[in-house]
Design a protein that fits this description.
The protein is an alpha+beta fold and 308 residues long. It has ten helices and 13 strands. Helix 2 runs parallel beside helix 6.
Length: 308
Amino acid sequence: MTLRFECIAIAGRDIYLEEKNTKSFMILYNGRIVREDYFNGHSKTASWYWASAGKTLTTAVSGIAQEEGLININNKVSDYLGTGWTSVSTDKENLITCKHLLSMNSGLDDSLGDDVSPANLQYVADAGTRWAYHNVYVKVQDVVAAASNQTWDNYFNTKLKEKIGMTGLWTDLSDLSVFWSNTRSMARFGLMISAKGTWKNTQIVPEAFLNEATNTSQDINKAYGYLWWLNGKSSYHLPQSQLQFNGELIPNAPADMYAALGKNDQKIHIVPSKKLVIIRMGDAGDGENFAVSTFDNDLWEKLNALIK
């Protein structure tokens, strides 16, 4: 593969990124930074929110906790949180496993907002039979906290954040727990994932678990793993919709790409075949969005002109 990233400015990419409300953009090839740019008043040390791209941090920590024998994602959530963590009947609640939360097919009502108190977690369908993008995934953090007998923040910091040299913190915004960090911390996480869960020859996240997490996790939305979005599948679903769309999630991107995607175009794109990790932080490039947006496809149209 030939990389022509020295031509980015000539090709107008810097202008494009700035005009698309980008705050930071990084391209890493084979573990090394080949482009690092900051726009619109942002800087190398400034923090920005990951939005739903941070869901993949929960995935990674779940894999660590499972490897340590603290949890099993195939166990029901009530094994760790007790019954009554939802408002559905006990028999229906006991159908919901941690894997269902990671796969977004808990069967709970996604139309009631981001509040995950029991009263707001109501039945729509049996677990495993309906895919819906839902903040209830965050209950996995409670599972890890209960199983490890410590706070989520403490377990996350000691088992992941500090081990790969990330900065940043979790912040509660209304009913959401959102991670904020500088761009290089997001890049460190992306690099660790792209290296099959290793950092400086130390296995942080089990490779077998990551293989599961970055492949189709259920039969409904083929483009979804454990909170990771997957390209190259024959169909996909989008947040806030029960419709199935045929074709690839991001047609211009490589088929083997998988991605952490967050509201208003927070992105980690990982492409194993090209040894690439691409990071983008900022405001929405093309109108407010939940995760996938037209910006992903437009970005890859421009990247493809620079990568052979």
